[in-house]
## 1
Amino acid sequence: MVKLCQVTNRLVINLQPKDGLELHLMAQGVDSEEGQVRLTPIQLDLDFDKRFGSERVGAYERLLLDVLAGRLNLFVRSDEQEMAWRWIEPVMKAWSDDSTGPLPYPAGSSGPSGATAMIAKDGYCWSGAC
């Protein structure tokens, strides 16, 4: 049995220099040739520079403005920080004890080739390019 691979639902968070969000979805649409209702890939794109332009405040500037305004609810308390480290330290230890560790992969890719191979054996892929 061959499984067809369609474009998956994805949320892409773009960080500097092109800050923004992309949402890739399969949505209901009508096939223009056959007139039948089918799932069609759509993309929603929020480019922060286009949307906010010169009104945008840099990350460090916003941080300093929040501190000066007393918005402490936006910051982590020391006990929260300690709990976060208790959670992450065993993960970091496991990575350091494992000779393969976390697998590096190029920015903008779908991840390490091992992840692609893992799901390909069952006929799936991360994006529509099967």
Note: Residues 1-5 have pLDDT under 50 and may be disordered.
## 2
Amino acid sequence: MRLQAHTLSLAALLLAAVVSSRARAADGEWQSLAPGLWYRPWRLQTVEDAPALAGHAFRVDPRVVHMTMLDARQGGRRMATAATLREESQAYLVVNGGFFDEHEAPLGLVVGDGKQTSPLRKVDQGVFLLSMGKPSIQHTRDPLPAKIDMAVQVGPRLVVDGRAMQLKRQVSRRTSICVPGDGTVIVVVFPTPISLADLAAALVRPQADGGLGCWSALNLDGGPSTQLSVATPGLSLEIEGGSGVPNGLAILPRSGGPSTPPP
């Protein structure tokens, strides 16, 4: 979302989510959507006796699928929805990416397919990146690898070295990314508002206890920017945002490479 103060209309906060009847994975179970891509609905009980929050988790093996950042800025266009970016790229999945300013320009490092489309900002944030096919999350002050396949700078970091960070309890829609340390990446979308503190605690919790077992995790842009578009033989899912975004994190088909099933 824009980092400066702004007023959102009620329509910008409306959410539309349509799930294909073919998707019937139970909570806690990973359903294979395509080679190197799995899905599970993720319901979190954050407050006793309150309704569980419904989220979506996608496990990605970047050794099998192609993971990159898509730039919406083309043909005079400055922004696009996740659905438009997915349709144009024929991706399996697209979520919103990093922050942007009041002029709809990206804020922070963005690299897609080895090409930098926005420079690093020297602020207290994190960077999710793929380098030589290996996923990681690091602080912006740490030296970047010489070769970067894809990257997005955003924040805050939610989990560092297997420990949930102390974060604000303000609630909002969330998009986040998790590195469990086994070579895969988990993309999480909560279209219902959740606090950063609750999300971080759930991400680091072991899978056996209903979490995702994240060793490191990073919050992407959220609020009205949170959006998701999925089109696979096993799942069709659309979560609309309040506006377009200047870039999106995409998962596309790619042949070859080993596939590691989720534990």
Note: Residues 11-242 form one domain.
## 3
Amino acid sequence: MLMDDGLHFIAGLPRSGSTLLAAILRQNPRFHASMTGPVGAMYMALEGAMSRRNESAVFISDARRQAVLKGLFSSYYRAEATGGLVFDTNRIWCAKMPALSHLFPDARVICCVRDVGWIMDSIERLVRRNAFELSGMFGFNAAGTVFMRVNQLAAGDGLVGYALDALREAFFGEHADRLILVEYQALTRTPESTMRRLYSLLKQPYFQHDFDNVKYQANSFDLSLGMPGLHTVRRKVEWIERETILPPDLFARFVNDTFWRTARTSLRPVAIIQPETRGA
């Protein structure tokens, strides 16, 4: 069936390189990759429609649920999947590992990760760069402070908090061996060796990428959120050293959240592509 061997997932934490990774992967003519798309939301809508809250769900067997959910990917990616490899991006996939293991037994979930304090810093920089735009990410609130914004992001249902909890669930879960964690510093400091390792883990022949000419933007989407530049990728892949713009106590709040660097208690080994050189 279509998509049996032609699908992997990109998930992990926001502002951690998922759009950059997709932009690099799409240089390979065999690969289809993009920013977060609609398939994740459609998947959850189908789950809800087939749940017990629908009185007719009594007629839907687990086998039929699986067929419908798998058919979503086949239908959506029909053109791209023919003779190629699809990477679907959505942070919810870390929370769907048991289902994905049944639907796509050979699929890997690539999780882009980064120090959480720097994620918060990156989002706050975008807010300040767009000083005359109110962001839909924060409900177009004109009275927000950096403390309010970070607290909202860090909440369990917030952009960062949800993604971090989902990643932790997958990392310590029974399907952790399907994960490939890619640290942001590894991708930006040493893109060549990082991509070679990723290709090896995916069991794909390596494609010679041009790390000085990477292109991706989604101006209309970003503008609709009041966050121009949210998904714009710089042409050259490089690490840029900087100081945080967050208040020190706020930045330090997340210093212990990089559990993947210190935790060794996951049930199964997790492949982690880490930076060769440590920095800020």
Note: The chain has one domain: 7-273.
## 4
Amino acid sequence: MKISQLFRAGRPVFSFEFFPPRTDAGQATLERTIRDLADLAPSFVSVTYGAGGSTRAKTLELVQWIEREAHIAAMAHLTCVGANRDEIGTVIDRLVEAGIENVMALRGDPPAGQDRFQRVPDGFGYAADLVTFIRKRHGHRLCLGGAGNPEGHPECRDLDRDVMHLKAKVDAGLDFVVTQLFFDNRVYFDFVDRARAAGIDVPIVPGLMPIRTVAGIERMTKLSGASIPHALHAELLRCREDEAAVAALGVAQTTAQAVELLRGGAPGIHFYTLNQSPATRMVLTALKTARLA
């Protein structure tokens, strides 16, 4: 099923994001995680794509497994990193041939060891170029999602300019947008207001990540450019040596965010799971109990 159809149903869309493991043991663990979350009836799940296509084959295999074995709509991520248009075209064709209907079209982050994104010869430098390429190659056979940055992309901190970059992607053919993680809901609502003022009318889904460890979230926010509110950061620092307390705070924070976002009109929630199920299960169960999911 195309994810765009889910948004038209008028109910909140809940989704989980996973990354392909590099080992057989990791694969088995992830399959258990997905099965564990399947009974929560997520609208769809997405599978990331390693820098330079390092997990290209595993992404396709995992997306196929999710649809065939877990019976959940799946979306494959696709980036511009380290591949020219012919190589990217081959990947897209394989996805279509495999019956995959949903793709998250991204420029992608630089591989480890590189400070900035490097466009390869005859490759794409922007996600908008990738979206245009997919639409020309397969029309609307695929539903396309893209990324939005409520606090600005790390390479573009001008918020108005960054929204115009997003508009270029939407104008090229995106069906919906999923945001980068954030911890202050005012950031999301302001972002949506800027997007609507710029003429962007596709669904904009907030992306949330339950905090598991202080070191982990500090690393993620540094990479993404997201900020941590002072009060939250202070409490995290206070209990940083108590992993159970940090995880509990992460669940509470994400649940509070999700409740306010949904009541404020967000079309759903996308959970960055880091291939873990407990926190996401707790949050989504709480939302179901509150009749918000």
Note: The chain has one domain: 3-213+251-289.
